[in-house]
Specification:
- By secondary structure, the protein is an alpha+beta fold.
- The chain has six helices and 27 strands.
- Strand 3 and strand 4 form a beta hairpin.
- Helix 1 runs antiparallel to helix 2, helix 3 packs across helix 4 and helix 5 runs antiparallel to helix 6.
- The chain is elongated, with a radius of gyration of 25 Å.
Length: 372
């Protein structure tokens, strides 16, 4: 086999595919990329058994067809040191010796038999297929991924719940301390299905999508897995098993008191006072009609901070505490100029919403308070 490819193009695609590869694989073959030479295309695949990412790269001067597996780290590290230059790959079909030649030199490596690389599992029953714009998928994942839990004892919370309805898609994530629900009513799947997408493939999908593009992404789902495919990448992953709780039942519908505040002002103030918070990261909010006082302290290290910012608040004066890191995550993932915090009392969850919802979207974030 033989082919030519530009080094920077190859490196950029390999960097994307390498995100799938685990640092602790059960099978040694998974420490490798699978290279498949097909006519004028090089198909590169990475896998950790649960998630599989494939990309297609145009190549020139192709001789022969076939497949081989080549070490992930060594391949990427060698390409990083090269300028943008043409590479010639020559693979001995019998010994699998690989020679990569560039303008001023070459390097040799040994490949493994590509037939040893695990094949993609066939689709199970009850297959559904539809398409979404890349920006819609990126928005759904981007608004929810920060809230995914990391507790393996509750695996259903370690992914993003996709609740597909005929006239909308609802994305939900929770770590049991916060919950985010993001509705997209400007998409119409025309069927009902739900699944839990693991955090790892969700993050990988975000990294390979053009977040502002209307480019359609084909989505195929069955009982156990999903495949997302655009012109350059195909990502397949297994779902998280488990029943997702009724997320609507835990979202307060009648928090009567609302604080309206500039989003960036609140975000910056929390970041500043959080530097002086205790290990738990508690930041206290003292709410009044036209301002809120943010305070944090660490008694063990004799540090404290206080900052006052303007707001509009329609309730009785209230003191409530939140974990600073959670507030920063929540407010940072709301993309409006202002933010509303809806409250009932200091012991109940606060609800963060954008001051203006975008057309066809509805975002709400539930945040549990901390004891002051």
């Amino acid at each position: 086999m033989k082919f030519n490819v530009q080094s920077k193009l190859l490196l950029s695609r390999l960097n994307a595919v390498s995100k799938v590869v685990s640092s602790n694989n059960a099978f040694a073959i998974l420490d490798n990329f699978l290279f498949e030479l097909q006519s004028d295309r090089l198909v590169v695949t990475g896998s950790d058994m649960e998630t599989r990412l494939t990309t297609n790269i145009e190549v020139q001067n192709v001789e022969g067809t076939g497949k081989f597996a080549i070490d992930v780290k060594r391949t990427i590290n060698s390409l990083k040191e090269l300028p943008d230059t043409a590479l010639t790959f020559e693979i001995n079909d019998e010994t699998l010796a690989v020679k990569v030649t560039y303008l001023n030199g070459y390097y040799d490596a040994m490949a493994l038999n590509g037939d040893e690389f695990p094949e993609k599992a066939a689709n199970a029953n009850d297959v559904k297929q539809f398409a979404l714009p890349a920006r819609s998928i990126a928005a759904g994942i981007g608004h929810t991924l920060f809230a995914v839990g990391k507790d393996d004892m509750h695996p259903q919370f370690t992914g993003i719940f996709w609740d597909i309805k005929p006239d909308m898609i609802v994305y939900v994530a929770s770590d049991s301390h916060k919950l985010v629900r993001y509705r997209q009513t400007n998409v119409k799947p025309d069927f009902e299905r739900n699944f839990i997408l693991p955090a790892k493939p969700a993050a990988i999908l975000m990294s390979v999508l053009d977040k502002g593009s209307e480019e359609p992404v084909s989505i195929t789902i069955d009982e156990n897995s999903a495949t997302f495919e655009n012109a350059d990448f195909q990502l397949s992953c297994r779902f998280i098993n488990g029943r997702y709780p009724n997320y609507n039942s835990v979202i307060p519908e009648d928090n009567p008191y609302t604080m309206a505040v500039d989003r960036q002002t609140l975000l910056n103030a929390v970041r500043r006072v959080a530097v002086f918070a205790n290990v738990g990261g508690l930041v206290r909010l003292d709410l009044s009609a036209d301002h809120v006082v943010l305070t944090a302290q660490d008694v063990d290290h004799s540090t404290a901070a206080e900052e006052t910012i303007a707001c509009e608040y329609n309730g009785e004066p209230m003191n409530i505490g939140f974990k600073s890191a959670d507030v920063i995550d929540v407010v940072n993932n709301i993309d409006s100029e202002g933010v509303f915090l809806k409250l009932l009392d200091p012991a109940r969850a606060g609800v963060f919403v954008p001051s203006e919802q975008k057309a066809g979207e509805d975002l709400i974030v539930l945040q549990m308070p901390m004891m002051i």
